Amino acid sequence: MEYLVQVLGSGLLQGLVYSLIAVSLVLIYKSSEVFNFSVGEFCTLGAIFFFVFQSLGMPLWVSIPGFLLMAAVFGGLVEKLIIDRLIGRNPMSITLVTIGISSILIGCMLIFFGANPETIELPVPDLTLDFAGALFISSQVWNGLIAASAMVALLLFHKFSTMGILMRATADSQVKSIVLGINARRILTMTWGISGMVAALGGLVVANGSAVSYDMGVVGLAAIPVVLLGGLESIPGAILGGMIIGLVETTTTFYLEPWLELPGFQAIAPYIVLLLVLMVRPQGLFGQELIERV
Amino acid sequence: MIEVEGLRVVYRDVISVLHGVSVKLEEGQITTLLGANGAGKTTLLRTLSGILQIYDGQVLEGSVKMDGVEVTRLNPVVIARRFGIVYIVEERTIFPQLNVVENLKCAASSRRDRNVARDMQRVFNLFPALGNRLQGKSGYLSGGEQQMLSIGNALMTKPRRFFLDEPSLGLAPILVRDMFKVIKRINEEDGISMFLVEQNAAAAMKVAHKGYVMENGRVVFEGSRQELEGNEDIKEFYLGSGGKGQKKDYRQSKRYKRRKRWLG
């Protein structure tokens, strides 16, 4: 029993981290049908931004807004300088460009940050949980909490704020928003900024309690089954998908692998689950149904 | 005033759609543009509103002047805001995933003044049916309600000019009548000029001050409502009543050819 609580708890906490990264992907996909393959590098860069503040000895109330702002500016700049020039092209071309951005970012981080991992430790009170015989270490709990609260905030923003409504509107149709005098391009830039911010926070919670290194971006790959499972256009889908994938990973590691005697099976288990779900619901669990009048 | 002179437009560098179109849209008036499918009506609206490049189109020659300013090179958002234009596209300017109030808020978002709530009330006064459908995605509204919301969205931008692309499309006859009544009312009460592109010629002519007929990328007829209504060809091909009340005789091949030409 303690074992089960431990496994499910860790899976859920890990899953929340995946969800956060997946939400970053969904924000961009929803608004422009572009799949941002550089999301992992956005995460790494965000963690590096935080590391810079941390090594300067800044208090949290400076470093958290500071690194989020830097990440937002960075995301917006990528859109303004690269993506904006490609608007109107096939989203697939832009998606391929993001793979290029990813390579460039890895290279730049290797040059400027170096190949050595650096530890990241949020200076926060100890929240180590020890109940029912299961143990969750403080950083793990904090990471889950941060991810969950960021996603709640984002959902509220997306649902109720004017900017959120505009983001959903331009995601619905860029042409229609333009003819109504809405500056769709600026909203797309801001969407990338917000997505960059979310990814940076994702990077922070991935690195917190362990370390950030220039090649941490592979964590972005973990978000791919998450968004496909949840549906590419759905933020709640991404959140739920992340938790499911987290649970699948840990239960596989602790129950299935010893039983099957297949170490490493947890790496493919999410894809098997994904495959099964997509057979029943090709648009993912919460994929957007096209409203079509017949 | 909007003046279009000798406009030539191509898509993808080769597909020529407009071959020298000139029209003049007076302030405060309803100008209608009639024509069959493929005549270039929608292309003209896209050019005027500046979204042509989104469809890979290009202005080769000619000019579009709004209040004396050349706009063919301007960004569509700038055109919309500066000249108070809202282009109500054929697919209806609504965001299907948003509910009614979110749609209206969105449309009003670029405004700076404080009368948004009052204008929203006006939309609900014009279209009481929308008031009963506040919850749920607007994509699930009926066709008529969607068209109402489309006009409502347009009104929320506080425009001076409407470009309407086939507002009657897919509506039941009784709804078409109501729709044109509302268009007339908005024109008179809010003083919004209208450029009304229609296939439903009879309904459009009833409200218009002036009209143009386009065919294969050219303006082939231009005149006041009286002139349009008095023209035999237009009567026959658009209003469906034969000239001089005769029964149509398709063995008169010349007449048949002429009809084919009109219908494109």
What would your notes on this structure say?
The complex is a heterodimer of chains A (294) and B (264). With 294 residues, chain A is mainly α. Chain A has one domain (2-220). Helices cover 70% and strands 3% of the residues of chain A. Chain A contains eleven helices and four strands, in the order ααααβββααααβααα. In chain A, the strands form two sheets. Chain A has a two-stranded antiparallel ribbon. In chain A, helix 2 (39-55) crosses helix 8 (184-207). In chain A, 51% of the residues are buried. By secondary structure, chain B is an alpha/beta fold. Chain B is built from eleven helices and ten strands. Chain B has helices at residues 41-49, 76-82, 100-107, 116-126, 128-131, 143-156, 173-190, 201-207, 225-230, 232-238, 253-263; strands spanning 2-11, 15-25, 30-35, 57-66, 69-70, 85-88, 161-165, 193-198, 210-215, 218-224. In chain B, helix 3 runs parallel beside helix 6 and helix 4 packs antiparallel against helix 6 (143-156). The model of chain B has no long low-confidence stretch (mean pLDDT 88). Chains A and B meet through helix 6 and helix 7 of A and helix 2, strand 6, helix 3 and helix 6 of B.
Shape of chain B: globular
Strand order of the largest sheet of chain A: 1-4
Q: Tell me the strand order in the biggest sheet of chain B.
A: 6-7-8-3-9-10
Order of helices and strands of chain A: HHHHEEEHHHHEHHH
The percent range for strand residues of chain B is 25-35%
Oligomer: heterodimer
Task: Please give the count of helices of chain A.
Answer: 11
Residues in helices of chain A, as a percent range? over 70%
The radius of gyration over CA of chain B amounts to 19 Å
Radius of gyration of chain A (CA) equals 19 Å
In whole angstroms, the N-to-C terminal distance of chain B is: 30 Å
Percent helix range of chain B = 25-40%
Tally of strands of chain A: 4
Order of helices and strands of chain B: EEEHEEHEHHHHEHEHEEHHH
Structural class of chain B: alpha/beta
Output mean pLDDT of chain A. Answer: 91
